[in-house]
Design a protein that fits this description.
Layout (H helix, E strand, L loop, with lengths): L16 E5 L7 H13 L5 E6 L2 H7 L4 E4 L3 H10 L2 E10 L5 H16 L3 E9 L5 H10 L5 E4 L2 H10 L5 E3 L17 E5 L8 H18 L3 E4 L3 H4 L2 H7 L5 H6 E4 L4 H9 L1 E6 L2 H9 L6 E3 L2 H9 L4 E3 L6 H11 L6 H11 L1 H17 L2
Parallel strand pairs: 1-2, 1-4, 2-3, 4-5, 5-6, 6-7, 8-9, 8-11, 9-10, 12-13
Helix pairs in contact: 3-4, 4-5, 7-14, 11-12
Length: 369
């Protein structure tokens, strides 16, 4: 790539190589949605490398791409050396709440990519939480190496401006808001996107399931437990039943659905009388279907998205009584969103793609010199 001082010798192919790095191929539909938006935002021509645990769902979204096992640091570092651009694509990758090693993994990829002459772009990112002093120091050191960044929340944007004031960056709604909107059709089901969380003890889960039991009985509605993350969410219904936290009447009305595609999720929430999401991208996909909704938040990112979309949201740390939950949920049944507001969020989220397109244009211009 002309104009870049290469610190490590790398033999590069003729077409630009873009390495997309994220939590892909881990059977989490939220990350699949991010990848789908990211791939659709990329201009041609380029060679795509995508880090993935399971290549199948990734190649279904990007058939012309090649995949790299994201759990093999050696292979990912080798791919970073081949890249012209490394894109950390969506989510909150620069955080240490999952583990400190996860943060080091991404920072290593960014550093090695720069050593090989690649540009580094942070796309649709959240920054943090960074609970360790060492983590904050490492991020402050590596962040200025980036070419550009787009952030999905104000707190991340403010921290990034403080730590890398010269880094070109934009703030916009989560990239998944760019996916197509749909009209709400209505139906008869209550749809959940709940996940295991340490924020809920037995009393907390019992509060939720008792309110849900009463609501589903009042509406005479089936309850669909949508497993947005296959491995984490699919066992939840049975686990609660085994723990004695699921009323018998609710259990009889309930079923778990493991969707095989984002299209299946959109079809489901489009016909729901009420959607009760905990997961961020379940909230976004339901709002894109203009579905009636009330959110439960295990993470500030969910509260921020709910506020942006004017979705009623209860933080799990402030869970109210069964009666108060029931009052809130009843008020939202069969009340679809304002399509104009949904469209405004879609337009605002396009800033992520615009930043990426500008980066690609700069890359093409460099290659043409």
């Amino acid at each position: 790539m002309p104009g870049v001082n290469r610190l490590l010798p790398v033999v590069r192919p003729t077409a630009p190589v873009l390495l997309l790095c994220g939590y892909y191929g881990e059977h989490n539909l939220g990350d699949d949605a991010l990848l789908q938006v990211l791939v659709s935002s990329l201009p041609e021509p380029q060679q795509l490398l995508i880090t993935a645990r399971d290549p199948a769902p990734v190649l279904a979204l990007a058939p012309s791409a090649q995949t790299v096992n994201r759990r093999s640091l050696r292979r990912c570092l080798r791919a970073a050396l081949r890249a012209d651009v490394l894109v950390l694509g969506g989510g909150s990758l620069l955080q240490d709440s999952t583990s400190f090693s996860s943060l080091v993994y991404y920072l290593l990829l960014m550093t090695v990519a720069r050593l090989g002459g690649a540009e580094v772009v942070l796309w649709g990112q959240g920054l943090g939480p960074l609970r360790r002093r060492t983590s904050r120091l490492l991020v402050r050191t590596v962040l200025p190496l980036c070419k550009a960044a787009s952030w999905r929340d104000q707190i991340s944007f403010d921290w990034a401006q403080r730590w890398a004031p010269k880094l070109p960056m934009v703030l916009a709604a989560d990239p998944v808001w760019q996916m197509p909107a749909r009209p709400w059709l209505g139906g008869d089901a209550i749809v959940l996107s709940w996940r295991p969380t340490p924020l809920l003890d037995s009393a907390g889960w019992r509060c939720l399931t008792e309110a849900l039991d009463r609501l589903s009985a009042d509406l005479d509605a089936p309850v669909i437990w949508l497993a947005f993350h296959h491995h984490q969410d699919a066992p939840l219904l049975q686990h609660l039943s085994d723990q004695g936290l699921l009323p018998a009447r609710l259990k009889a009305r309930s079923s778990t659905l493991v969707p095989q595609s984002l299209e299946a999720v959109s079809d489901l929430v489009q016909r729901a009388r009420l959607v009760l999401p905990m997961r961020l991208h379940a909230l976004i996909l339901a709002r894109l279907a203009n579905s009636p909704m009330a959110a439960l938040s295990y993470d500030p990112k969910v509260e921020a998205a709910a506020a942006m979309a004017t979705v009623p949201c209860i933080p799990l740390r402030l869970l109210p009584s069964v009666d108060d939950l029931l009052t809130l949920w009843r008020a939202e049944v069969d009340r679809p969103a304002d399509p104009d507001q949904t469209e405004a969020l879609r337009r605002q989220a396009s800033a992520h793609s615009e930043l990426l397109n500008q980066m690609a244009a700069d890359l093409t211009a460099d290659d043409g010199r």
